[in-house]
Write a structure and sequence with these properties.
With 157 residues, this protein is of the alpha+beta class. It contains four helices and seven strands; from the N terminus they run βαββαββααββ. The radius of gyration is 15 Å and the shape is globular.
């Protein structure tokens, strides 16, 4: 754990994965809060969470007939009951998650993808990383409209 610029970690991941996502005719929109303070985090672990969110968003957009396939990557600050949090969100306008699957997505080995596309371990590992940082993951999904996955991390540990 070290003082780390969350936006810097986001840019690092996007520089590595952008080509792969753009190849799928998906547009990435970045909305990074320039005033976000540094966080005491493990950078490579946060990169792993973001990469998982992005790959899942890409997969949610593959195979849908929509012309404007979009993934938004957003960083922001939020204050709840006087406590400051950094929020890293990945929003897609893909297929969304079926309501009956929403409660299972963090369960190890649960996947709605075909066998060759996923192990069902990504989100459970991501949740473990979030919790090891005293944070959490929030999910908002509407079938047919898309999903937003947000990694919520404390600004002061």
């Amino acid at each position: 754990m070290s003082d780390t610029d969350l936006n810097g970690e986001v840019k690092r991941v996007l520089s590595l994965i952008k080509y792969q996502i753009n190849r799928s005719q998906i547009r990435i929109i970045e909305q990074l809060d320039p005033d976000l303070p540094k966080l005491t985090i493990n950078g490579p672990q946060i990169q792993q969470v973001l990469t998982n969110f992005l790959v899942n968003a890409r997969d949610a957009l593959s195979g849908i007939g929509r012309e404007d396939k979009i993934i938004e990557v957003i960083t922001a600050e939020r204050t709840v009951n006087g406590k400051r949090w950094a929020v890293l969100s990945v929003r897609d306008n893909g297929s969304g998650i079926a309501p009956e699957n929403l409660s299972k997505i963090f369960t190890p080995f649960f996947t709605s993808k075909e066998a060759t596309k996923g192990t069902g371990l990504g989100l459970s590992v991501c949740l473990g990383i979030a919790e090891s940082h005293q944070g959490t993951i929030e999910v908002d999904s509407k079938p047919g409209e898309g999903s937003t996955f947000s990694l919520v991390l404390p600004i002061e540990p």
